[in-house]
Amino acid sequence: MARLVGEGHILNRNVIVARVHYEVDVSQTYIEDRHGLVPGLLHIECVLTELPDSVRGNSPFTLVMEDGRKLNFYAVGDGDIRPTGGIY
Question: Do 1 and 27 meet the contact criterion of CB atoms below 8 Å apart?
């Protein structure tokens, strides 16, 4: 399991719309088969603080983390997001 914590910014169509503090937890399940353990899907949970009301609704957004990695998401609540894929 990895935990990524830091300061980043939110993009909407390549325009910075907010600066936020993020906490991203990444975990992976493993599936056992006759050959041993096989990596399963990644599970990503993320909480953003200082998220403005403008980052809500049906628009897709992108979190850009301190190290340049990105995570696409939809905002679903007060700082809770629903990632739409993996970290890239």
Answer: yes
Cβ-based neighbours of 27, under 8 Å, separated by 6 or more: 1, 2, 42, 43
Tabulate helix, strand, coil % of the chain (nearest 5).
0, 65, 35
Are 83 and 72 a contacting pair, CB within 8 Å? yes
Domains of the chain by residue range: 2-83
Query: Which residue is it, tokens 């353990």?
Result: 37
Cα–Cα distance for residue pair 1/25, rounded to 1 Å = 7
- Strand-strand pairing, 2-12 and 15-33: antiparallel
Q: pLDDT of 49-84, one tens digit each?
A: 888 888 877 789 999 999 999 999 998 876 678 899
- What global pTM score does this model have? 0.85
Element (H, E) at 71: strand 70-75
